[in-house]
């Protein structure tokens, strides 16, 4: 009954410890979802660094001699400790890079000149591999440390010596790092002290065991703080008991139960001294530090789920010659690794370690699907499958967001902010791409400060980045809480529930903003502006188009740019002027005369008609101001009056030029081949010359008007005479055409030839032409 009570008490203490560790170190939050979801990973808010000391019983009974069967024929007391050293490195590499573990190993016996040997000094054995360094660097250091842990024969079993050395080891280890450090002692022994110098004879009960155990308990209580002092101050103690040949006596077992229970540990009796030893170590480790869930496996299928950064197989065999292989079906062929060899590259084997009968296979980015474990004898090994899922961190938003309190809007359409996560490997930080056969479904539930709840989906953007399809709500001031979960289908086809890959609890803040905009001062909407200047002064030059804007709040009050804007104020606004199928881009700069205005000039567009002005904000502004519109549009016209149009003056110049050309042509024409000689008037039949009119004026055509006729030739009956040269020399004669109008409006048209026949022009008068050289 006492034994059963002790076992029950041990079970209750272990259960309470486990619940405390899970409650304090590994909080997780469950959220309602219409889909059935099973969790792939636990969420751990903090990491723990270990100072762990192994006390290895290296008495003769452990390794065996000619008189006794060995309690540890495969040296698991050493090989399992070597394996655990590598597992602590795995924790620092993948789970908690900020955790610097330390490990001490003390081999003890008794009745020898050197009954205690320090294989690894706690203060000098920092297990802190660099995740960014090549894995070979850690492998080299790991194997170097393991070589210090050796099987020995140290005669008898004086456990008090080992605990005394453990006290010294903890005292010599200085504080390290900022994480919570937890101390632990793991005693690997059959639990029964036997010191020959105190009367112990193998197989006889002459040794004062009860006295020794009482002294040991007092020593432990004096040197180490119990579990009542909390995980940061106490030292957890476990006993892994090898009891094949000689089970512990009841009162020895009872004492160990009481000691380990008081120190947050327990006694783990092993029925097999081979594969069970590292298996027990693994169970202890999972109680000491936050560890993702692992699965005990054996021969048969193992479904490797998608989005695993690594998949680790821990195989604990009872003999080194037992063959265990790990296989994967791919593209109709079987890939296989055994003893760390085979299709290692194709299967992604990144790390392999063997410690006697214990093996560790670590595959990086394993292919999801059905894997298998096979062996010659499936009853002779214990195996654990340890999947490590990728993690995700909140990429955006990283800073508080500005408020958008416009009615009917949940976000600023001109400055939207999106939720984004990046899925990465814990060890390297490298982006983890999605699986096309197992798409990642990411949903975020957002709780607003006022109690409103919204849900948004995230889509795969590029690499490992997932972005929300809708902008984040920013319609209230305060803190918005996020619960984001990523799920995918399991690789196990029989698993109907969705697999939760990761979950994140986050938040972002929204702060008060002042809405502002910018107003176009020049030109005004629908205004008509001249295109060219006047003839005098501007000389019809193309007039520059003056542009101007200013900042204003929602009420229209002008704002100072130095208060609202950031960066280069002379690069905050860009204007585009369009007309006649052409456009010009102008950067607006601060007006030297009106500092709260931004001005510029358009000097290239010269077409009349409709103009479009678009001013865009391209600068930066103080986040406490919110831009209500990123562009402003203005339509206006440009047109010239009649006397400011260059075309008007171009037409006048062309007309004058044409007239001048015509005048010159006429002058040239009139001066070419001029009329020479006289018109002679005589009495008919008397050959009496009455008068003559000279025609030699140097012109092709000569007109004698009425005044001249009236004053100079009153006898001539004409009111007007016009003479023009119509021919050059023909048969030695010249001809002219005479058009004469009588005073009574009668008219004659005659052609006279030099020296030709005279033409009658009156009752007693005739006219003829006489050429003169």
List keywords for this structure.
773 residues, alpha+beta, Rossmann fold, Immunoglobulin-like, nine-stranded mixed beta sheet, rod-shaped
Give a description of the structure.
A hairpin with a 2-residue loop joins strand 41 (718-730) and strand 42. The strands form 8 sheets. Strands 1, 19, 20, 21, 22, 23, 24, 25 and 26 form a 9-stranded mixed beta sheet that branches. The protein folds into 4 domains: 2-10 and 50-291, von Willebrand factor, type A domain (Rossmann fold), CATH 3.40.50; 391-512, Sandwich (Immunoglobulin-like), CATH 2.60.40.10; 516-640, Sandwich (Immunoglobulin-like), CATH 2.60.40.10; 678-770, no CATH class. It is an alpha+beta fold. It has 12 helices and 45 strands. It starts with a helix and ends with a strand. 20% of the residues lie in helices and 38% in strands.
Task: Break the fold down into its secondary structure elements and pairings.
Blueprint: H1 2-25, E1 37-39, E2 48-57, H2 60-63, H3 76-95, E3 101-108, E4 116-120, E5 126-127, H4 135-146, H5 159-172, E6 180-189, H6 209-223, E7 235-242, H7 250-262, E8 267-270, H8 276-288, E9 295-297, E10 300-304, E11 308-317, E12 324-330, E13 333-338, E14 341-342, H9 344-347, E15 349-355, E16 358-364, E17 369-375, E18 381-389, E19 391-396, E20 401-402, E21 418-424, E22 441-447, E23 453-462, E24 465-471, E25 478-488, E26 498-511, E27 514-522, E28 528-529, E29 545-553, H10 561-564, E30 565-566, E31 573-579, E32 582-590, E33 597-602, E34 609-617, E35 620-621, E36 625-627, E37 631-638, H11 646-671, E38 678-683, E39 689-694, E40 701-704, H12 706-712, E41 718-730, E42 733-742, E43 747-753, E44 759-760, E45 765-770
Parallel strand pairs: 1-26, 2-3, 2-6, 6-7, 7-8, 20-26, 27-36, 28-37
Antiparallel strand pairs: 3-4, 3-5, 9-18, 10-17, 11-16, 11-18, 12-13, 12-17, 13-14, 15-16, 19-21, 21-24, 22-23, 22-25, 23-24, 25-26, 27-29, 29-33, 30-35, 31-32, 31-34, 32-33, 34-37, 38-39, 38-45, 40-41, 41-42, 42-43, 44-45
Helix pairs in contact: 1-7, 3-4, 3-8, 5-6, 6-7
């Amino acid at each position: 009954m006492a034994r059963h009570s002790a076992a029950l008490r041990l079970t209750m203490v272990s259960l309470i410890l486990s619940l405390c560790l899970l409650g304090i170190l590994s909080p997780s939050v469950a959220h309602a979802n219409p889909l059935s979801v099973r969790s792939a990973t636990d969420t751990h808010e903090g990491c723990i660094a270990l100072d762990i000391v192994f006390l290895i019983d290296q008495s003769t009974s452990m390794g065996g001699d000619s008189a006794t069967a060995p309690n540890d024929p495969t040296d698991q007391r050493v090989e399992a400790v070597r394996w655990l050293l590598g597992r602590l490195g795995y924790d620092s590499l993948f789970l908690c890079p900020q955790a610097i573990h330390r490990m001490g190993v003390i081999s003890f016996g008794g009745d020898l000149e050197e009954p205690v040997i320090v294989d690894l000094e706690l203060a000098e054995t920092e297990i802190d591999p660099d995740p960014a360094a090549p894995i070979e660097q850690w492998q080299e250091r790991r194997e170097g440390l393991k070589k210090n842990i050796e099987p020995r024969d140290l005669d008898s079993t004086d456990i008090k010596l080992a605990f005394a050395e453990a006290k010294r080891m903890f005292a010599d280890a200085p504080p390290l790092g900022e994480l919570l450090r937890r101390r632990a002692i793991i005693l690997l022994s059959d639990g029964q002290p036997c010191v020959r110098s105190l009367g112990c004879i193998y197989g006889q009960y002459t040794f004062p065991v009860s006295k020794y155990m009482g002294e040991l308990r007092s020593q432990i209580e004096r040197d180490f703080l119990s579990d009542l002092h909390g995980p940061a101050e106490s030292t957890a103690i476990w006993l892994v008991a090898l009891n094949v040949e000689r089970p512990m006596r009841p009162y020895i077992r009872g004492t160990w139960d009481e000691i380990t229970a008081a120190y947050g540990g327990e006694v783990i009796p092993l029925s097999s001294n081979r594969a069970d030893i590292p298996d027990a170590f693994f169970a202890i480790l999972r109680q000491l530090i936050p560890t993702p869930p692992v699965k005990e496996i054996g021969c048969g299928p193992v479904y490797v789920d998608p989005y695993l950064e690594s998949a680790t197989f821990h195989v604990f065999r009872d003999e080194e010659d037992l063959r265990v292989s790990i296989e994967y079906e791919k593209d109709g062929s079987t890939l296989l690794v055994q003893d760390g060899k085979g299709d290692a590259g194709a299967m992604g084997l990144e790390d392999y370690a063997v410690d006697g009968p214990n093996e560790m296979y670590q595959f990086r980015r394993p292919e999801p699907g059905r894997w298998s474990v096979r062996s010659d004898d499936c009853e002779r090994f214990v195996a654990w499958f340890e999947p490590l899922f990728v993690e995700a961190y909140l990429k955006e938003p990283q800073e508080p967001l500005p408020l958008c309190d416009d009615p009917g809007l949940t976000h600023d359409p001109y400055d939207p902010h999106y939720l984004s996560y990046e899925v990465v490997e814990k060890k390297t930080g490298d982006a983890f791409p999605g699986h096309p056969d197992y798409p990642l479904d990411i949903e975020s539930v957002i709780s607003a400060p006022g109690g409103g709840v919204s849900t948004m989906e995230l889509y795969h953007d590029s690499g490992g980045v997932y972005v929300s399809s809708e902008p984040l709500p920013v319609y209230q001031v305060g803190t918005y809480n996020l619960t984001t979960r990523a799920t995918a289908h399991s690789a196990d086809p029989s698993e109907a529930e969705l697999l939760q890959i990761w979950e994140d609890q986050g938040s972002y803040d929204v702060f008060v903003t002042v809405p502002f905009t910018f107003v176009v001062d020049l030109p005004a909407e629908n205004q008509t502006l001249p295109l060219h200047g006047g003839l005098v002064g501007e000389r019809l030059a193309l007039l520059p188009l003056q542009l101007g804007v200013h900042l204003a709040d929602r009420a229209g009050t002008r704002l100072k740019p130095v208060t609202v804007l950031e960066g280069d104020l002379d690069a905050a606004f860009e204007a585009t002027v369009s007309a006649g199928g052409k456009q010009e881009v102008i950067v607006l700069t601060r007006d030297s005369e009106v500092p709260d205005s931004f001005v510029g000039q358009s000097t290239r567009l010269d077409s009349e008609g409709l103009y479009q002005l678009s001013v865009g904000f391209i600068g930066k502004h103080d986040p406490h101001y919110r831009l209500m519109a990123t562009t402003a549009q203005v339509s206006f016209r440009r047109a010239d009056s009649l006397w400011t149009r260059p075309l008007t003056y171009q037409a006048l110049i062309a007309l004058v030029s044409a007239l001048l050309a015509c005048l010159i042509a006429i002058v040239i024409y009139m001066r070419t081949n001029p009329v020479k000689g006289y018109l002679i008037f005589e009495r008919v039949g008397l050959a009496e010359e009455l008068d003559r009119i000279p025609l030699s004026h140097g012109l092709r055509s000569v007109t004698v008007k009425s005044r001249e006729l009236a004053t100079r030739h009153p006898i001539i009956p004409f009111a007007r005479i016009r003479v023009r040269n119509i021919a050059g020399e023909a048969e030695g004669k010249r001809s002219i055409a005479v058009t004469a109008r009588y005073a009574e409006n009668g008219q004659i048209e005659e052609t006279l030839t030099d020296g030709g026949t005279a033409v009658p022009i009156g009752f007693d008068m005739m006219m003829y032409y006489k050429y003169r050289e």
